[in-house]
Amino acid sequence: MKVLIIGAGAREHTIAWKMNKSERVEKIFIAPGNAGTKEIGVNVDINVDEITKLMEFAKNNKIDMTIVGPEIPLVMGITDLFRENNLNIIGPDKFGSKLEGSKAFAKEFMIKHNIKTAKYKEYNEFNKAKNDLGIYGYPMVIKADGLAGGKGVLIPESEKEALEALNELMNNKKFGDAGNKIIFEEFLEGIEASILCFVDGDTILPMDSVQDYKRALENDKGLNTGGMGTYSPSVLFNDGLILKVKNEVLNPFIKGIKEEKMDFRGIIFVGLMIKNNEINVLEFNVRFGDPETQVILPRLENDLYDVFEKMNERKLNEIELKWKKEKAVCVVLASGGYPEKYQKGYEISGLENMDMVFHAGTKFENDKILTNGGRVLSIVSLGKDIKSAREKSYEKIKKINYLNMIFRTDIAKL
Ligand code: AMP
Ligand code: GLY
Predict the structure, then answer these.
(1) pLDDT digits over 268-297, tens only?
(2) Whose CA is nearest to atom 4 of ligand 1?
(3) Which of 29, 216, 250, 386 is in Cβ range 3.0-4.6 Å of 222 for a Cys bridge?
């Protein structure tokens, strides 16, 4: 089988690595890929938003299955385009992708289908929003409706800060058109957790749990990032909580996508806030998480091609997911300055003979591997317990070097 993976991050490198373990997969293409994916398959010089070119590539190269990593092509409607051309692709249709592409749409969906979420109100006009500042008290949550690369959520603590945030979003267009519409949300306290599931429209199969570390600095200080590390399974989840999430979130979700007639053959990633056994949904992502994927797929026993094939045929009910007993820890190595301004183009050394070092912002140039982004590498290890997995990951890091390398030293320190 020939597979095309769309994206350029450590998430996509991990998907390629796992696909490469399938005896059914003969050839893997990654568009556009990075210096790591090039070692597993063939990098294709097409960007994630060039969906027509991607479709033509899949057609011309007789690709059996395409897997979409990031949200942008999904929200643009890549799955509809592929399916119109009789190509197999993993990801929800354009309509289903609105669950990530529009925060207001996701809130409407949750309320309509009885999934508990924070109170909210939406605004298209600055003055109307300004009049309502603080309606839910402070801190308040302001979200750009559209895609903002994970940065579109602001949590001002006072009216002054809230006015500045609103101005940035709606007048100064900090996130471009993503801020044409915004929502105000009630601030929820609690512990955050996420759950990722394979979905085929009828069946929803939760993956094993993950805990992520969003903030840039130790002890969860500093700015929010795409994610500085993860471990799996999360110590937060027990059978009781999983059952509650199934009853209160996952089953209503499946019922909802059916009623809305979404073609949802893909991944749903649900962000949860949990307090005193009460579960609220913060957000939906319609794809694998990064760096969640880096600890989930190495623990999955099943052949990933089989899972996607059954998903595509709407026969996920025939799959039983099996997880390794070993635990996994991922530590993200980033460029100094990330998530704000950083330099790139530095040579990376020490990558020889290392398994499960997944590349994100890297590129291959003149026989060298260079840094090429904010998050550079995901260092993943398996161990009999979290402690031994984390020790292995930090041991690997000692061998790797590039200028201004930064990482958190407290990932999975329980
Ligand atoms: P989102 O992209 O919607 O998950 O928001 C990003 C982050 O903002 C979340 O991971 C939470 O830390 C925080 N957040 C979002 N919504 C809320 C809320 N209603 N109350 C408290 N924190 C929130
Ligand atoms: N780690 C969060 C995300 O992939 O959106």
Answers:
(1) 999 999 998 899 999 999 999 999 999 999
(2) 283
(3) 216
